[in-house]
């Protein structure tokens, strides 16, 4: 019997194509994307919260301004009511209804001199005729008919105090006024008529509405209870124009108090509304959203710029750290293992390795040293085989042969020249110049057997290979025993 030796070597079961990418690029992109997501989330949160905070502050400012103007209007109207009540109780005023109107006329002249915000003051009797009165231009109003006026009908209808539902242009001048009328009773309680005061609405709005600005285009205005503009800081042409059909006016009338958002010519706006209790008029403060939140928008742009700079700086810093501490050591390890895989066992591992990479480099160096020892031992064993021998891979290509089998098969080239060739090409030549047949063995490898008519028929060499699922193959060698082949 021939002694049998088994050698098991690892092989790849199939070729795997791998798309190589730069680790540095992948790491840089991953880090940049992660930072970008974090910065974007932070910027979004800060900008959104800043926007809402600024918007709330500006809305509060609108609302507060509207309430202050409404309170100022209420105070002004209340003061004028008190003046009218005071006049109605004076003897001079009551005497004008009993045949002494000249005293009331003189009184009104001195009265208007002390009240520059009053356009006119007059008395009307139960027929609606003015019995005494004067305006700021010192024009005598005596004899005028006010029977059809709203305030006159209210007083003659039994009300003690009447305020016009809106403002109007004065009959005796180009000025916007409203009227406060107070009933005048005689000593016996009989209704004599009424005293009417006409404050200058223009003066009030010039001091309270016109100066108010929100951003570049924000303004204030006042609506009466029917939706008519009775004051406007930006466009005086809208005075006394009925806008009750506009959506924002209907919203303001319906809300009465507070703040709401609406769209005007494609732009978002805020409006704060405050009601004047004495008249039901609405003080409105309107501003554009973009202008109210301009600071938040500016802050968002600054945050975006800072975030972009942070992303670039951190990405470059992490890339540099990865390059120095991770990638360069990995490249050194890769170059070292590539040389070992190519058969250069004299290669040395050089580089600066830190932390886990230092441990990995040490283990890899120990593994290569151990591999050198085992490969040296295996090579020594193979070189020490005294009989013809060869190793064929699972693809039926020659992996290793010794000089004995080359001489046996009468091959003149070096044994290294046969590595990688199909095993069927390595056959002996018969004396007649014919090549011996090549046939596959039972295991799937080729078996070259010289004919018995050739030279040295007693010398035979068989190499077989067996593919396995575990990506290994087994080569079996038979060496002739001292007594010859069996």
Fold and architecture overview:
- By secondary structure, the protein is an alpha+beta fold.
- Among the domains are: 89-203, Beta-Lactamase (2-Layer Sandwich); 204-292, 2-Layer Sandwich (Beta-Lactamase), CATH 3.30.450; 385-478.
- It is 40% helix and 20% strand.
- It contains ten helices and 19 strands.
- It has helices at 23-88, 91-95, 101-114, 150-156, 201-208, 247-255, 289-292, 294-341, 356-383, 403-408, and strands at 4-10, 118-125, 130-135, 161-163, 168-169, 176-177, 180-185, 191-199, 219-223, 229-232, 258-264, 267-275, 282-288, 390-392, 398-401, 438-440, 446-448, 464-467, 472-478.
- Strands 3-2-8-7-4 form a five-stranded antiparallel β-sheet, sandwiched between helices.
- Helix 1 packs antiparallel against helix 8.
- The N and C termini lie close together (6 Å).
- Residues 1-21 and 428-486 have low confidence and may be disordered.
Question: Features of this protein?
Answer:
Beta-Lactamase, 10 helices, alpha+beta, rod-shaped, 5-stranded antiparallel β-sheet, disordered N terminus, disordered C terminus, 486 residues
Concise synopsis of the structure shown:
The chain has 486 residues and is an alpha+beta fold. The chain is built from ten helices and 19 strands.
Under CATH at level 1, the class of the domain at 89-203 stands as Alpha Beta
Tell me what portion of residues adopts beta-strand conformation.
15-25%
Q: Largest sheet, order of strands side by side? A: 3-2-8-7-4
CATH fold annotation of the domain at 89-203 = Beta-Lactamase
Provide a count of the helices.
10
* Overall mean confidence score, pLDDT: 79
Order of helices and strands: EHHHEEHEEEEEHEEHEEEHHHEEHEEEE
The count of β-strands is 19
* CATH homology superfamily name of the domain at 89-203: PAS domain
Q: How many angstroms separate the termini?
A: 6 Å
Structural class call reads alpha+beta
Please state the overall shape, judged from the principal axes of the Cα atoms: rod-shaped
Which CATH architecture of the domain at 89-203 would you pick?
2-Layer Sandwich
Which spans of ≥5 residues are poorly predicted at pLDDT below 50?
1-21, 428-486
Largest sheet composition: 5 strands, antiparallel
């Amino acid at each position: 019997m021939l002694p049998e030796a088994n050698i098991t070597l690892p092989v790849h079961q199939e070729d795997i194509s791998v798309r190589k990418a730069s680790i540095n690029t992948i790491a840089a992109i991953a880090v940049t994307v992660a930072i970008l997501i974090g910065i974007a989330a932070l910027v979004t949160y800060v900008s959104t919260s800043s926007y809402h905070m600024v918007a709330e502050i500006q809305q509060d400012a609108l609302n507060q301004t509207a309430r202050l103007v409404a309170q100022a209007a209420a105070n002004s109207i209340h003061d004028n009511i008190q003046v009218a009540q005071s006049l109605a109780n004076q003897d001079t005023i009551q005497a004008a209804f009993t045949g002494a109107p000249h005293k009331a006329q003189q009184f009104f002249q001195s009265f208007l001199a002390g009240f520059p915000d009053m356009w006119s003051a007059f008395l009307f009797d139960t027929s609606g005729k003015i019995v005494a009165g004067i305006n700021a231009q010192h024009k005598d109003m005596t004899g005028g008919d006010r029977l059809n006026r709203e305030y006159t009908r209210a007083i003659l209808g039994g009300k003690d105090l009447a305020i016009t539902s809106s403002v109007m242009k004065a009959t005796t001048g180009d000025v916007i006024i409203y009227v406060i009328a107070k009933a005048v009773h005689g000593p016996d309680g009989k209704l004599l008529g009424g005293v009417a005061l006409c404050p200058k609405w223009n003066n009030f709005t010039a001091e309270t509405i016109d100066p108010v600005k929100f951003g570049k285009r924000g303004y204030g205005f006042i609506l009466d209870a029917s939706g008519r503009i009775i004051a406007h800081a930006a466009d005086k042409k809208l005075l006394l124009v009925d806008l009750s059909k506009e959506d924002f006016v209907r919203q303001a009338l319906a809300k009465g108090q507070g703040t709401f958002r609406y769209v005007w010519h494609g732009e978002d706006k805020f409006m704060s509304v405050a009601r004047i209790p004495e008249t039901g008029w609405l003080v409105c403060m309107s501003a554009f959203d973009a202008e109210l939140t301009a600071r938040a928008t500016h802050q968002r742009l600054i945050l975006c710029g800072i975030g972009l700079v942070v992303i670039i700086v951190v990405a470059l810093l992490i890339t540099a750290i990865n390059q120095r501490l991770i990638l360069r050591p990995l490249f050194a390890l890769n170059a070292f293992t590539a040389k070992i895989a190519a058969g250069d066992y004299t290669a040395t591992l050089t580089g600066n390795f830190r932390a886990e990479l230092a441990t990995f480099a040490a283990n890899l160096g120990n593994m290569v040293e151990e591999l050198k020892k085992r490969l040296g031992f295996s090579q020594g064993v193979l070189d020490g085989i005294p009989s013809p021998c060869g190793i064929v891979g699972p693809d039926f290509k020659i992996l290793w042969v010794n000089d004995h089998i080359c001489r046996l098969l009468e091959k003149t080239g070096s044994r290294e020249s046969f590595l990688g060739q199909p095993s069927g090409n390595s056959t002996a030549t018969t004396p007649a110049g014919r090549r011996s047949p090549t046939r596959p063995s039972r295991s799937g490898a080729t078996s070259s057997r010289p004919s018995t008519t050739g030279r040295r028929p007693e010398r035979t060499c068989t190499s077989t290979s067996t593919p396995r699922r575990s990506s290994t193959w087994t080569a079996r060698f038979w060496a002739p025993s001292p007594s010859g082949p069996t």
